[in-house]
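WARN retry 2 of 3 for item q-0093 after timeout on previous attempt; input resubmitted unchanged.
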Amino acid sequence: MIDDHPLFAEGFQAMVARHRPDWQFDTAGTGEEAMRRLAEQPPELIVLDIFLPDQDGFELIQRLKTWAPTLPVIFVSGRDHAAMAVRARASPANGFIPKTTPPEQFIELIEAALAGRGAWPGGETGASPPQLTPRQAEVLELLAAGHGNKEIRYRLGIAERTVRAHLTELFQLLGVHGRMPAVIKARDLGMIE
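OK item q-0093 returned
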């Protein structure tokens, strides 16, 4: 497990000990620490937090998959909104599990990844959010954080006209006219916090 929150890591290990005592988990708090440990003893599966102190989980998974292309890697995050799941699905991850997932389901999803299947929780209730591209999901996250077009352009390294095009597509997908209604609708659909 690669996660910088000791409380979650300890709770996760306690959950595994209770439900699957035959499993052993080692933890690393940063991407660099994980890469050093992986070279010493390759694991059968990695549970990877998206937000690490030294690097983004989406960057780290690229390194992990270059190092071991068939190694199952499951993202976990305290941010379980749809935009994060969209980005995870577009990555080489084998699954995405919100940290709010009940223990039994968490174990089932890990077992699915170990068996070569995806670890993608389903069964969300309520209105179905529109499917976004990974870039649209990034633009939506930055929009919800209050960033203007120029800041979004800078952070994503794209042209401002491209930002405007993504916003137009987002507004159409959400059925709204404007930035604030888009954020409100996305929150209502559970796509962002």
